[in-house]
Amino acid sequence: MCGPAWPLCLLLLGFVLSAVSRTSGVVITPLAPTVEVGQPLNFSCALTTSAGDTIHQVRWLNPHKQTVLAYVPRLPAHISVQDPNVQLQSSHRGISDITIKTVRPEDEGCFHCIFDIYPKGQQEGKACITVTGKVDHKGNKTAIAGKPTTLSCLYTLPEKVHQVLWRKTTERGERTTVGSYSKYGHQSIGDTFLNRVTLNKDMGDSQLTIQEVKMEDEACYTCEFHTYPDGTRSAVVCLSVYVLPKPDVSYVTLPTGVIEANCSAQSKPSAQITWDVGGDNRTLGPPVFSSHNQSDGTTTVTSTVLLRAGALSDVQCIVHHSALDKPLSVPLTNVSPATVVLLVVSSVVAVLLLCLCGCLCKCFVCTDD
Ligand SMILES: *[C@@H]1O[C@H](CO)[C@@H](O)[C@H](O)[C@H]1NC(C)=O
Ligand SMILES: *[C@@H]1O[C@H](CO)[C@@H](O)[C@H](O)[C@H]1NC(C)=O
Ligand SMILES: *[C@@H]1O[C@H](CO)[C@@H](O)[C@H](O)[C@H]1NC(C)=O
Ligand SMILES: *[C@@H]1O[C@H](CO)[C@@H](O)[C@H](O)[C@H]1NC(C)=O
Ligand SMILES: *[C@@H]1O[C@H](CO)[C@@H](O)[C@H](O)[C@H]1NC(C)=O
């Protein structure tokens, strides 16, 4: 293989061998781990010892060249320096196993393990960590139409984020950019969200606030953390918009004296309607339900019940909705049939007219006698 160039070959071989023997003195594993901030990390450092070597001390240095662990490898190990975040797992012969309990952003860089050996002197190895973050969020959210709501996303390594961007994806798949902001103070909000949506400017805890939630805000929102050098990390939070019911009750007295009472509620999701008729035998048959889906996503539910003549007092319509802590109850007697209102209004007008006539008569026409 070498042929006439064999002296060069030997030279090369010599280089390789010396390089191996120099670096194979101490080997740390893993060599270049990528770890999420907050996670533990194990390092194992191995020294190739030769007969006659005595290890006086083992030291571990963090990327800031601070000693985080130093011990004499006796049985048991005699520890002289120990960072509370570092634990010695095992030490036997030329092996030192440690655990970094939680990796912090400042742990990024190269860790060194150093063996102080007699008579060889120092032997050291190094391993370089890359620390990354993780996107976290509190799950999907439900908001009430007309009320404010806040969606939030967390990135555990804000130091590496240079821009945060929020996108909206509707159920039909339409994507729009809600807004973004950068580390350097630049901020932009999409036209359709201006004056309605605000973004806080935190690089690690991003919050999108909608002042008054509308039906069309129901969608999934993607928060994107643009980081360097790890690239874009994102998460999706979906918003459901609920509409609270505003129950409507009415009744008519049929010619037979039977009362037909209606209770209806428009909401999202649909409400359940029950009746409290205040006693036995007051209804003629069970209530009849009908439901109608509106184009805006709400549903109108109507319940109609027939009541015996005179059984009007104490009747209540009860409306249950998943966004309400307790059901709404609306008494039937609080509403007057339309005819009663008309009667009251017309009698008031009549009285006023009569008064006016009397007055006019007194003042002008009838004063002569
Ligand atoms: C690190 O080492 C400890 C003790 O040897 C072990 O219990 C743990 O599972 C290891 N962790 C990882 C992430 O390998
Ligand atoms: C959030 O909602 C979306 C769409 O409704 C669904 O696909 C996803 O599984 C939900 N995520 C969680 C954590 O509930
Ligand atoms: C009650 O609802 C039914 C069906 O929606 C309707 O036909 C009826 O006129 C309503 N009655 C009253 C008193 O509102
Ligand atoms: C209800 O009506 C049934 C028969 O229609 C009668 O047996 C029962 O006693 C009545 N209950 C009350 C509380 O009036
Ligand atoms: C109304 O919409 C719901 C789902 O939102 C659906 O299950 C139901 O069948 C629809 N009802 C009508 C009458 O279209």
Provide structural commentary:
Helices cover 12% and strands 48% of the residues. The chain has helices at residues 6-23, 338-365; strands spanning 26-29, 34-36, 41-47, 54-61, 67-72, 78-82, 86-92, 95-100, 109-118, 121-132, 135-137, 141-144, 149-155, 161-169, 175-182, 187-189, 197-199, 205-210, 219-227, 231-242, 248-253, 259-267, 272-276, 288-293, 299-307, 316-320, 328-331. It folds into 3 domains: 26-132, Immunoglobulins (Immunoglobulin-like, Sandwich), CATH 2.60.40; 135-242, Immunoglobulins (Immunoglobulin-like, Sandwich); 248-334, Sandwich (Immunoglobulin-like). It has 369 residues and is mainly beta. Strands 2-10-9-4-5-6 form a 6-stranded mixed beta sheet, with no helix packed on it. Residues 139-140, 238 line the site of one 2-acetamido-2-deoxy-beta-D-glucopyranose. The site of one 2-acetamido-2-deoxy-beta-D-glucopyranose has 8 residues, from β21, β22 and β25. One of its GO terms (molecular function) is cell-cell adhesion mediator activity. This is Zgc:172122.
